[in-house]
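Example record for the data management plan.
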Amino acid sequence: MKKVIASVLSVAMVAALAAGCNGGAGETTVGTTGSNGETDPVAETTEAAPAETTTTKQSMTVGTGAEVINLWSFTNEVPKMVQKYVELNPEFGEQYTVECTIIATDGGAYQNALDAALLAGGDEAPDMYTAEAAFILKYSQGDMADFATTYKDLGIDVDAKIEEAGIAQYSVEIGSRNGDVVALGYQATGCAMIYSSAIANEVFGTDDPAKIEEICGAGTGNWDKFWEAAAQLKEKGYAAVSGGGDIWNACEKSADQAWIVDGELTIDPKREAYFDIAKTLKDNGWSNDASGWTEAWYADMKGAGPQKVFAFFGPAWLINYTINPNCGGTQPGEGTYGDWRVCAPPVGFFWGGTWVLGNKDTDNKEGVAKLIEWITLDTSETGLQYLWANDLMGNGAKDTVASSVVMEKSDGKTAICGDQNIFPAFIAGNKYASAKAMTQYDETINRYFTDAANLYANGEMEKDEAIETFKSNVTDNLSF
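Corresponding structural encoding:
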């Protein structure tokens, strides 16, 4: 998979990989606007992608070295990390050129293109690549897992580094194939309960995270105390959550059994319980019945829904990139800005994340290993995770990272959360999270399941009928 920059690209190569602007180490090109509103240093191309991907590829080139590392990703997040690494380690950029291909996940475009590139092999195949939570198992344990090299084979002392860094166990579970780590993340997406200080004080007489944890049953693994709190909140005119989907994420990821067991569709009791949870929330008026990623959900984040909402459940990115821009203000006293607090949740789960993998056929193991170790395991103050946690990467927020050691030595005070240090609550959330019940089919099966639960909650079907509808949808549309 090794090639030299001076080589002539064939027409086939150009069709497979968009040509990037060959900037030097640390150079950027005029790019596109990212999700946080900042300009992304990614050179856009207008090349038509192969029919099977039906998307426009973007490219970014970092370094000037003769040895080439092909990096594939579905956003420019990891390419920008590589750019930072080269800024900090210019000798790497003198030895290597990292050619980054970026394809959005829309309609499966990224997965289709990545699969084709891995299967084709050769100089244009990715040496390292990324996968998000929705499809990571396909590449770490599932149909495409054989292409991933183990971190040990890259020369990384992975077991010792994981222990040294305090990497969240769920992240290790997701990235392991037959007991060997083939992928790790840099984010921590274990979830916490994000609650309103003002509502907590009015209803419970305190907003102290430790006391709210007791009131809501943090770490109990069940919702009993939270439902007691929901009833108290309703008496005062407040909704416990925005909608049932806020609870579904926890039900789905806290299950003990995967959807597929020995080739058979299996409904774990913790997931099946969501049918009754969704209906109870609706019947008791304990939510505003808002769906995630809708205007009603965003309105609840600024306190503008039918009932003001006490809590959301999610990772730090939900605070930084969803609640923050939708809270109705930019300083305390405006909307709900500064009113949020964070504590451990009743039920542990994670939501989202990105994992980094290396190709077993790469000819640049040493270079790939350096990048992967710096992104996923380096706990120093020049490692990616420290820079990420302390908003030194230009991401505009203090993000939780995979290493608890890094979070413990970082400043997690966040203005939208009243300058509370949010990291301890997320460290606890990471410990509660588990990945033992995941499969590569989860994204599709989850959609069928929540659709059926909504039919029951809305009174359109009886519970048994809704469950049978779910089963039929899965068996009719998936083969496993």
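Summary line stored alongside the record: The longest strand covers residues 56-62.
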